[in-house]
């Protein structure tokens, strides 16, 4: 285990609108506000999109199990934003439900908002962390930085 500590900085309330591309809008927001590190919680609905629901097998590097969804699903979740030299790196896990069906996974690609998603973003100040590609797994993983 590794850790770093910091404090809560700015707090943002964001309303995402119907047909917004969820991850793209978060990235745009993070760039505009110069977010270096943050966590967020959200709730609302996604019209359509893609999830990774774990690996196909528990091997390293993992191969993702992709699930495509459409026709509007209720959603809530949590995510992180860490910025590196390529820009904001967004990682979101959520649960989606429709009728009696439920998926939990990592929101990816061009997932679009249905009607509204409400989010609260908590900026993390003073933490020494970044995200970058881990050579062993090929994944964009959190790195606790020293110094």
Provide a quick synopsis of the model.
The chain has 147 residues and is mainly β. It is built from 1 helix and 8 strands.
What keyword list fits this structure?
147 residues, mainly beta, 60s Ribosomal Protein L30, Chain: A, six-stranded antiparallel sheet, two-stranded antiparallel ribbon, 1 helix, 8 strands, 8% helix, globular
Task: Give your account of this protein's structure.
The chain has about 150 residues and is mainly β. Helix content is about 10%, strand content about 65%. The strands form two sheets. Strands 1, 2, 3, 4, 5 and 6 form a six-stranded antiparallel beta sheet that branches.
Q: Structural class given helices, strands, pairing?
A: mainly beta
Beta strand count = 8
**What summary fits the major beta sheet?**
6 strands, antiparallel
What number is the mean pLDDT? 95
Share in β-strands: over 45%
Q: Quote the CATH topology.
A: 60s Ribosomal Protein L30, Chain: A
């Amino acid at each position: 285990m590794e850790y770093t500590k910091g404090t809560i900085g700015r707090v943002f309330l964001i309303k995402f609108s119907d047909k917004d591309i969820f991850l793209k809008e978060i990235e745009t927001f993070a760039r505009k506000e110069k977010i270096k590190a943050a966590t967020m919680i959200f709730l609302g609905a996604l019209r359509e999109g893609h999830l990774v629901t774990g690996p196909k097998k528990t091997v390293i590097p993992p191969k993702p199990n992709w699930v495509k969804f459409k026709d509007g699903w209720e959603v809530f979740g949590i995510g992180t934003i860490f910025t590196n030299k390529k820009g904001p790196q967004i990682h979101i896990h959520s649960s989606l439900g429709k009728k009696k069906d439920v998926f939990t996974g990592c929101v990816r690609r061009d997932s679009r908002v249905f009607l509204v998603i409400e989010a609260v973003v908590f900026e993390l100040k003073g933490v020494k962390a970044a995200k970058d590609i881990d050579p062993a797994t090929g994944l964009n993983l959190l790195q606790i930085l020293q110094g």
